[in-house]
Amino acid sequence: MQLRDIKKVAVTLTAIVSMGSCKKFLDINKDPDRILSTNPPMAQLLTSAQMNLSFEGGSDLFRYSALIAQQMSGQASQPNQTYEYDRYNITGSDENNVWNSIFATTLSDIELIIKQAEATGSPYYGGVAKILKAYEYSLVVDTWGDVPYSEAQQLVENTAPNYEDDAAIYPKLIQLLTSAVADLNQATSNFSPGTNSLIYSNSNFASAKPLWIKLANTLKLRLYLHYSKKDPAFTVAQITALVNTAGIKFFESNTDNFQMVFNNAANQRNPISQFEVSRPNYLFANATMVNLMNAKSDPRRATYFTPFPWASSPATYKGVTPGDPATVNYSRIYTFLRGTATGTPTPNSSGGITASSLTFSGTAPQRMVTFAEYNFIRAEAALMGVPGDPQAFFTAGITASMKEAGVSDANIATYLAANGTLTGTNAQKLQQIIEEKYVALFGVSVEPWTDWRRTGFPALTPPSNHISQVTSVPRSLFYPQSEIDLNPNAPDQKPADLQTKVFWDN
């Protein structure tokens, strides 16, 4: 089967599943046609799980975190949804759908794969599914803190799972990744993923296997780094042990990126681009990110954002600041997150362009873990005392990001000459690393917000029009209202100020 055909199947599955997304995930788990089938095919489940995971990567959690981290802005969209999110008016009811998608669809499919893999003697399927589960759960914990884990995905055996301490879940995710690598290193597997795997797709799993192992190891680095604020000695010890492990492999180039590639076809385009089409003028560039890039004449702006004014020469870029008027006179999301652009815009008298001025292919990948991120993790870890040269990893991280954004070698060299040398105290060097990582991870869900919570970089100032209950940048999100209403074992709703911290943020 052609990859594009498999994607069509996955999109159809996603559409079917999303029809029930307004229901509580515990009720959806009782669906006899999809979940309780006595022999759901692993191949189909893997396709569905990966597609859903990738669509989630560019949907609600991405928008919440990108707005909170001030990479994007909804301020110019008032009185629309993203305007409210941008001023921290994110309610539990807003989060019902994304929670349902995560638990009722993605994690349920993944759990079924893990169980079927064990039952059929197929450790390669099990290994891939465990990595996907660890990745998905890491985002869930980083967003909400305490969540159902050990009692989740038990179908009718437990329809009201208890919530587990987030600090207790993280070690289980790390162990899950260890187990995944062990599965993938088994000599044989009765069934193996092929082109039905939309990520690292290959008809010969022997070629895809090393990429999944690299991802598991790189994801471990990410999780260990998250402890850096709470327990820096633990971070140093664990990452040191990991990087010193004989034969260990991490991401080695942009071709190793954990990402989904999309098609230029209806319902098969990148979810960020689809949102831009279905909700025109809901998102613009945020002045916090644009100003950071403007100060360095960052060449990535040419693919990250549209120029404003459109015809400016040399190109200039403008982000939205809270209180700015609701117009189209700002830079928009461009090809890096949306794919190839076509069309000849006619700007208004101020140089702004409308959402329909350009048509995008929607083929930009949905990035989840990248080689650039790996290098910035290693740079920060080395700064803390882990083996390695912080400067070398810092340079490699910037270079990898620039390459992803299509920047020429000459422009990369110019940028590195001006901005690529770590200087000052360790705190100042950390700021340089995190601010570059912040730019490099544009389009990656949750992680830039996580980095800010860990380090305080880049400096974020709450919008002047924030709602009265939330006066500081949020540290986590409310629990979905569906959980509060329907799960008797759910905790009380979080305080209205959204300052409840995830365990590693304390």
Give a quick rundown of the structure.
This protein has 506 residues and is mainly α. The protein is built from 20 helices and six strands.
Please describe the structure with a list of short key phrases separated by commas or semicolons.
506 residues; mainly alpha; Serine Threonine Protein Phosphatase 5, Tetratricopeptide repeat; Four Helix Bundle (Hemerythrin (Met), subunit A); two-stranded antiparallel sheet; 6 strands; 3% strand; disordered N terminus
Describe the structure.
Helix 7 (123-144) runs parallel beside helix 9 (205-225) and helix 9 packs antiparallel against helix 10 (232-243). The protein is 48% helix and 3% strand. It has helices at 3-18, 25-28, 42-57, 60-68, 81-86, 96-120, 123-144, 166-184, 205-225, 232-243, 271-278, 287-294, 301-304, 335-338, 371-384, 390-404, 409-419, 426-440, 447-455, 481-486, and strands spanning 72-73, 258-260, 284-285, 341-342, 359-360, 366-369. Residues 1-38 have low confidence and may be disordered. It is globular and about 65 Å long. It has 20 helices and six strands. The chain has three domains: 3-245 and 470-487, Serine Threonine Protein Phosphatase 5, Tetratricopeptide repeat (Alpha Horseshoe); 276-364, no CATH class; 371-440, Four Helix Bundle (Hemerythrin (Met), subunit A) (Up-down Bundle). The strands form three sheets. Strands 1-3 form a two-stranded antiparallel ribbon. Strands 2-6 form a two-stranded antiparallel ribbon. Strands 4-5 form a two-stranded antiparallel ribbon. The protein has 506 residues and is mostly helical.
